[in-house]
User: Fold DUF2817 domain-containing protein from Perkinsus olseni.
Amino acid sequence: YYEARTKFRTLATQAGLELKSFEVVPASGYGDEYIMDVAVLRPTKGPNRGSVVHTSGVHGVEGYGGSGIQCYLLDQIRQAREEGRLQKIDKTLVFVHAVNPYGMAHYRRFNEEN
Assistant:
């Protein structure tokens, strides 16, 4: 979870997306943080014509597959921005990473309250 989170945050920043973090489970003081990160790409031109939301880790353990897809898409956005191909986005793209970070971190389907 921690490695996947770092990669997601790095790629979202490199792609130029807005990034916000939300503590889902308060830290215990033992170095464990359970944070849900949200990266947003707003329309680049014209009015907003809707939203596309991609989540990962709703049930925790499957978050690694979803995180991989998100990281791939963020890298594609970064490349498109660098090549000047990111000029006609008319929808808001939202990537929610690790909806259930506790389950993802502990390879469980459930959250900290089971």
Summary: The two ends are 18 Å apart (CA to CA). Residues 63-82 form the longest helix (20 residues).
